[in-house]
């Protein structure tokens, strides 16, 4: 607002000095502009109703207060300037000590009924109580506004996205034949001025403010609208540090878990823990992104695919663990069976310890002063036959059969167990190659898509 001061005109006439004192009330009295006079504010200020009122509008962006993706709300703080002409008001500044402008209360004159179509909440910022009236009838109005408007956002590339939000300004009553709206500044000047007066941007970087005009026809009448488009780019550093990198680190931990031994239970528990951590981050993502979107956000695809890969890795670990445990069960059954046999045989052996040939098929002979260990089964059998001890022969044959059966069981168990372990190793190796290839290809594609 401009400051006004009283002017003194000093006139020298025949050596006599005369002073003329002027004030703003002289102008208002001349115009008969008072609060009780409704002639200046009831109707559109034209002498001929066929003449449209020309309104010049200028909007600058002071700050980007918030952009809320969940509710798709855009909250800027703007500075708006209006200019129009009141054809019923004019005066000669020379008659009033050069006073060419007067500040008067807003409710004393007619004002254009302009409003913002996207606005969803009433402006609660302090209203400028005065408007400026010029001697040629021009009226100037300035306002600072906090606009809470709806904005259709595309979060497909979140957090590397660029948003465009519109503010459409028009009249609700006056059509094109009655009122025309023109921008004071073009797109380049509005962008430059906005960058100069910008106070804060926060998470968003202001790129451009473009101005365009459009006409809307409804019920045979045409209305003119001005559209201010705010283009801004998100600063993704905070989301990358707090969200994208932790998920990537969890993926690397899952890859590193392939080097943990499969026969231990730590690998399975580790993978379950990492999967639960990803689930928590997905809950945080649900609070950030809007519930409805035309396209699936890339960050959601990023999280879901990594979650699916980790789930598949967990299932593979369960399968490998099952195969290894199957071999362990076979070994455990054989060990329990051997323990039972030992418990059964222990009393018999104690009873036959006194016999010189109990469960013995070896003896030592001396030849040439050297000791040799021999297995003369045939000679022993002959000697036993000769001695008539047939009971001992039957015991030896039964023991040999049991030993042969034990060896066969052990070989079968080792053969089956080795087959399971071999399949587990093959599955683990093939899945690791598949996992690394899939993860590398997916990360490459997702980051390329983000930056296109």
Question: Could you walk me through the main structural features you see in this protein, from its secondary elements to its overall organization?
Answer:
42% of the residues lie in helices and 26% in strands. The chain is an alpha+beta fold and 452 residues long. The chain folds into 2 domains: 30-235, Neurotransmitter-gated ion-channel ligand-binding domain (Acetylcholine Binding Protein, Chain: A, Distorted Sandwich), CATH 2.70.170; 239-452. Strands 3, 4, 5, 7, 8, 9 and 11 form a 7-stranded mixed β-sheet that branches. Strands 6-10-13-12 form a 4-stranded antiparallel β-sheet. The chain has a two-stranded antiparallel sheet with strand order 1-2. The chain starts with 7 loop residues before the first strand and ends with a helix.
SSE arrangement, N to C? EEHEEEEEEEEEHEEHHHEEHH
Q: Which assembly state applies to the chains in this document?
A: single chain
Helix content: 40-55%
CA gyration radius, whole angstroms: 48 Å
What's the pLDDT, averaged over the residues? Answer: 80
Structural class: alpha+beta
What is the strand tally? 15
Number of helices: 7
Q: Shape from CA axes?
A: rod-shaped
* N→C terminal distance: 47 Å
Question: In a nutshell, what does this entry contain?
Answer:
The chain has 452 residues and is an alpha+beta fold. The protein has two domains: 30-235, Acetylcholine Binding Protein, Chain: A (Distorted Sandwich), CATH 2.70.170; 239-452. The chain has helices spanning 24-31, 187-197, 237-256, 266-288, 298-351, 377-387, 390-450, and strands spanning 8-13, 16-21, 53-68, 73-85, 101-105, 114-116, 130-134, 138-146, 149-150, 162-171, 179-183, 204-218, 221-234, 363-367, 370-374.
């Amino acid at each position: 607002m401009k400051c006004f001061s009283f002017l003194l005109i000093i006139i020298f006439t025949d050596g006599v000095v005369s002073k003329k004192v002027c004030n703003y009330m002289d102008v208002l009295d001349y115009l008969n502009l008072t609060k009780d006079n409704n002639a200046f504010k009831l109707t559109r200020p034209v002498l001929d109703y066929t003449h449209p009122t020309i309104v010049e509008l200028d909007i600058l962006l002071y700050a980007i207060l918030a952009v809320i993706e969940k509710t798709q709300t855009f909250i800027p703080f703007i500075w708006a300037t209006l200019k129009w002409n009141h054809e019923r008001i004019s005066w000669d500044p020379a008659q009033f000590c050069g006073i060419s402008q007067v500040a008067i209360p807003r409710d004393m004159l007619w004002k254009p009924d302009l409003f913002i179509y996207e606005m969803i909440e009433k402006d609660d910022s302090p209203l400028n109580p005065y408007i400026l009236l010029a001697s040629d009838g021009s009226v100037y109005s300035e306002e600072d506004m906090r606009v809470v408007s709806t904005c259709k956002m595309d979060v497909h590339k979140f957090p590397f996205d660029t948003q465009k939000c519109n503010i459409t300004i028009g009249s609700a009553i006056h059509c094109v034949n009655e009122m025309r709206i023109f921008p004071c500044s073009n797109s380049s000047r509005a962008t430059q001025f906005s960058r100069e007066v910008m106070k804060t941007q926060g998470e968003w970087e202001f790129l451009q403010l473009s101005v365009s005009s459009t006409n809307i026809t409804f019920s045979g009448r045409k209305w003119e609208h001005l559209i201010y488009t705010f283009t801004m780019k998100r600063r993704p550093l905070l989301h990358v540090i707090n969200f994208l990198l932790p998920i990537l680190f969890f993926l690397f931990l899952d890859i590193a878990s392939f080097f943990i031994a499969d026969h231990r239970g730590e690998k399975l528990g580790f993978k379950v823990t990492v999967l639960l951590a990803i689930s928590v981050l997905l809950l945080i993502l649900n609070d950030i992104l809007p519930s409805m979107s035309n396209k699936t956000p890339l960050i959601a695809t990023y999280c879901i695919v990594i979650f699916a890969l980790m789930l598949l890795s967990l299932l593979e670990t369960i399968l490998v663990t099952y195969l290894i445990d199957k071999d362990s069960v076979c070994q455990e059954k054989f060990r329990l069976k051997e323990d039972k046999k030992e418990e059964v045989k222990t009393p018999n052996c104690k009873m036959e310890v006194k016999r010189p040939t109990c469960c013995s098929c070896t003896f030592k002979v001396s030849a040439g002063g050297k000791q040799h260990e021999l297995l003369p089964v045939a000679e022993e059998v002959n000697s036993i036959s000769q001695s008539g001890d047939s009971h001992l022969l039957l015991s030896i044959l039964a023991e040999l059969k049991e030993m042969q059966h034990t060896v066969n069981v052990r070989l079968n168990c080792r053969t089956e167990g080795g087959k399971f372990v071999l399949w587990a190793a093959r599955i683990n190796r093939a899945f690791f190659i598949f996992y690394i290839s899939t993860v590398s290809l997916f990360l490459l594609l997702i980051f390329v898509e983000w930056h296109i």
